Amino acid sequence: MRSKKRKNYLLVIGLIAIFISLIYLVGNGERKDSKECRTDSDCVPAGCCHPTSCVSKEQAPNCTGIYCTQVCSGPLDCGLGHCGCISNKCEVLIDLE
After folding, report:
1. Rounded to two decimals, what is the model's pTM?
2. Which of 52, 54, 75, 86 is the most buried (most CB within 10 A)?
């Protein structure tokens, strides 16, 4: 009789563990699919010197103490573009004016 109770107890614990694991995996999947940005202000250049792409503020590089050359090498670098949010992704936007 004790053996049967013990098996049932282990079965319940196993099911709970599986349930918790599934919740964890589903939660992590949602974070990976989350939107990178909602507005242009959510986006920043992806590099400290001569950036060629944009990332969300959460992924912004730490540029403290970094010195760059004065060479202009692209729209972000030359003041001809800025980072913006297009379809919930951070992109380089070219300024036409």
Report:
1. 0.61
2. 54
- Report the distance separating Cα 92 and Cα 44, nearest Å: 9
Q: Which residue has the tokens 């992109």?
A: 91
Alpha helical stretches, state H, 1-97: 2-32
Q: Write the pLDDT tens digit of every residue in 8-22.
A: 776 767 667 677 766
Kindly state whether residues 90 and 56 are assigned to the same domain: yes
What does the buried/exposed string (b/e) look like for 71-89 if buried means 16 or more CB atoms within 10 Å of the residue's CB? eeeebbbeeebbbbbeeee
Domain total for the chain? 2
14 SS3 class: helix
Domain that holds residue 28: 1-34
